[in-house]
Amino acid sequence: MTMSTLDGRTALVTGARGGIGRAAAVALAEAGADLVLWGHQDNLDEAAAEVAAHGAKAKTVVADLGDESSVRRAAERVLAENQIDILVNNAGIIRRGPALDLSDSDWSAVLQVNLNSVFLLSRLFGGPMCERRSGKVINIASMLSFQGGINVTSYTVSKHAVAGLTRALANEWAPLGVNVNAVAPGYVATANTAVLRADPVREAEIRSRIPAGRWAQPHEIAGAVVFLASPAADYVHGHVLAVDGGWLSR
Q1: Looking at the whole model, is its pTM more than 0.85?
Q2: Is 155 a catalytic residue?
Q3: 3-state secondary structure of 17
């Protein structure tokens, strides 16, 4: 196996129907991996067709990450049919608004999808990896893994926790041959950032702080995912890789 090929590997990507998840799935397919695409039904078949166009096998899983029992059942079905070599915990939701106005239900929903499901899926799919002493877990963190943000309390807390979970699992699983790392995207043009990009004042404030001078496109984050999934990153453990156009350097 060369340093970049993923031939013979199977990757599972959550939130794969669009944005960073879909771009990561396509990039993993281009590197030779087969894919299991986890997400909501809308656009998921389109994502699978795009993956298949690169010669990869593509299966889809529709399961609500906000429902733990549904996640467990879906994971059991996947594991019964596939060996998952690469897990990309990409799916995430956001609820915007001042902390004083944030409802308990919105707080719980964000933590369930962005953090609890990441831990659950990491254990469900990481367990067999640890038994085989081989595998890659890649979590999608955020610039808000390092900063506080504005009016996104639950999201910020969840992404700080994802960075901590990445390091904690790496400490436990590195001796077992499993790499656990994270990618922290900067500001990317996705559905989650549509509100920010539609606000001319806030958009200009954000863009003015990015040394690259622009928002990223989803495919520009995917390369970091492929790197961490590949043999080239076999000695990388517990790292949160910022792909941010220089944001953290400003």
Answers
A1: yes
A2: yes
A3: coil
